[in-house]
Amino acid sequence: GAVTATELSAGAVTATKIAAGAVTANSLAVNSVTAAAISAGAVRADQIAAGAVTAKHLLIADLDNLVSNGKGGSLDGWDSPVPGGISADVAGWWVDFAVASKTAVTVKSRDAWFGARFAVKPGDQFWGRADTVPSGGGVSTYDFRLGLVVFDAAGAILSFVVLCARSAGAAGYIPISGSAPVPSSAAFAQVWASVAGPNGVIYTAAGQAHHATNIEIRRKNGGELIVDGSITAAKILAGEVQTQHLVANAVTADKIVANSITADKIAVGAVQAQHISSGLPGGNLIPNSALAATFIDSGGALQADGHTFAGANIITGLACSLNLAGDAWRPVGMNALALRQLGDVGAGNPAAYADIGGPVWPVVAGQPYEFSFYSGAHRCSVTGYVTFRNAAGAIIWQQMLTTNAEEAGGGQGLDGYKRLFTVAVAPAGAVTGQLSYRKLATVSGASDSWLFAACPMGAPALSAAQSSPSPGCRPASARRSAAASSKQAL
Fold first, then answer.
1. Which of 164, 273, 308, 394 shows the smallest number of beta carbons within 10 Å?
2. Tens of pLDDT, residue by residue, the chain (490 residues)
3. Which of 336, 483, 470 is nearest to 409 (CA)?
4. Are strands 144-151 and 188-195 parallel, antiparallel or unpaired?
5. Contact, 443 vs 423, CB < 8 A?
6. Which of 210, 216, 218 is nearest to 104 (CA)?
7. Residue 358, number of CB atoms within 10 A of its CB
């Protein structure tokens, strides 16, 4: 006891001065062994007491990146409410910062989003990251944010959750990352990227837009010992799951593998009329979706039953008809909606548009539905939107599809079209759904633009997280034929 702590200088007792086994549990102060004091791999299985690791000690993260197109180079899955508000770029300056990806998405307006909505629970934690550079590579004019748009069960926006961000005034390349929970009442979410500038405009000055690559958003499931779906068939011994292991009503439709219920599994007389639904996933519910039922309108133009010109804002010089551009501009053996604008009234104005409205059909509130159609665009952008109405016919929710920014012009083969898509959940009170088609204004410098639309589809989705459309109307004759070139004169 002669040498006390006061006789020792800081750092005087090194590892070589301590005999093996000299430091026992009662020699350590409470909480003195921190994570930094433990070498990587130092804690072995035989050093952990039985039952010591409980659920609260585990963080089990979802391995799936919710942004499947996080490196850019294309706009697959990305969209913006402002036409041209997001683009896909080859960003050569990433090389200067030793970033592996040489492609990016460029957010050029206030809001952009990725993919379809997916289900969440209140309090779910999400983590996000991205490599970012402002346009021009210099100083950013506005904040850049990456996160989630969060919706309640009725489809109304609850909040915008920022997972990570870079601040205005920051220069050059900055990797960002962070995490946050979704709020109470959250039911669905969608990936969201934002430049915190004015709404409804395209950012063109250096430093205003932001390039982002290596984008990741992942769900963090802290406190859950076993994540849904982690116990696969290979982990369960044959015959081990018996009737007494199943909770009443535990086996629902989403738990049954497609095509696994064969005739021999169904009791005689078990399938009755009330068990048969006309809205099975993949079934097209849009009336006259083949555009085959037609009539001649008062102006002598051929139209599809239920699909009618729905008006325009700002745009003038319009003509709407089935197969208006002739057989070269419709899929072989099929009809195509066509909307033409002569002149460039409204060019450059994101509020200028003209619409074709589709037929309405009954929906079930709370059910997710997929919407899509094959689109052709000439010298304009083409998109579509979903409308849900209540029993009084009032609009209670609208949602845009993805956009064809002159990426596909259409023609005689569906491979010459771009299939636009979204998944929308019918909100509380909804009784009907409708898919409409929108042509934006002729681009500046042109005087003639076209929308083409074929194979519209509306059907119950497999889930709100469904990220791609189900097989639609693709007759063999229309799949691959000589597609008309988008450069061909119309």
1. 273
2. 567 666 676 667 777 777 776 777 667 766 666 655 676 666 776 777 776 665 555 545 556 899 999 988 888 999 988 888 899 877 666 666 667 677 889 999 999 999 989 999 998 999 999 999 998 888 999 999 999 999 999 888 999 999 999 999 998 889 999 999 999 999 999 999 999 999 889 999 999 999 999 999 999 865 444 555 666 676 676 766 776 667 666 676 666 766 667 766 776 656 543 344 333 444 789 999 999 988 998 888 999 999 999 999 999 999 999 999 999 999 998 999 999 999 999 998 989 999 999 999 999 999 999 999 999 999 999 999 999 999 999 999 999 999 999 999 999 999 999 999 999 999 999 999 999 999 999 999 999 999 999 999 999 999 999 999 988 665 544 555 444 444 455 6
3. 483
4. antiparallel
5. no
6. 210
7. 29
Q: Output the CA torsion sign for 305, 307, 311, 316.
A: negative
- In single-letter form, the type of residue at position 69 comes to N
Q: Is the pTM of this model over 0.70?
A: no
Q: Whose CA is closest to 388, among 366, 373, 414?
A: 366
8 Å CB contact between 66 and 115: yes
